Amino acid sequence: MELLGPVVLGLLLIGIGAVNWTGNISTVKRHNRRNVRDEDIPAYGKAMGGGTMVIGAVVAVSPLLMQVSDLAATVVVVAGIIIGLAIILYGQIKYNGGIF
Fold first, then answer.
1. DSSP code of 97?
2. Domain ranges for the chain
3. Do the beta carbons of residue 16 and residue 24 sit within 8 Å?
């Protein structure tokens, strides 16, 4: 039962990422999307959604990885979060002109 929390959180993040992926960027804070041009919204949504889904996926599978090895789970989760944040940061800088 204690492993249910990360799975639910991961699935929630995947769902939010999927919403962004489709071009609906309303879940991104307004000040983080204020400089995104209308024609860049689909690409921005894919970047933000893709990064969020990567993070959600590694969080969701972390309980399974913990059954194999705590070290393996830690490495995969940290690497996945770094990759997801890098994707989000790329989209934020490219399409919004900066991180804020």
1. S
2. 4-96
3. no
**C-alpha span between 61 and 80 (Å, rounded):** 11
pLDDT over 80 at 1, yes or no:
no
The Cα 4–Cα 44 span in angstroms is 31
Report CA torsion sign: 45, 43, 57, 32. Answer: negative
Cβ count within 10 A of residue 36: 21
In whole angstroms, give the CA distance from residue 80 to residue 55: 6
List the structure tokens of 79.
Answer: 């690497």
User: How much is the pTM?
Assistant: 0.90
User: How long a stretch of residues is the chain?
Assistant: 100
Rounded CA-CA distance 98/100 in Å is: 6
Cα dist. 12→15, 34, 72, 81, 93 in Å? 5, 25, 23, 15, 25
Helix and strand totals (H; E) in the chain? 4, 0
How high is the pLDDT of residue 3? 82
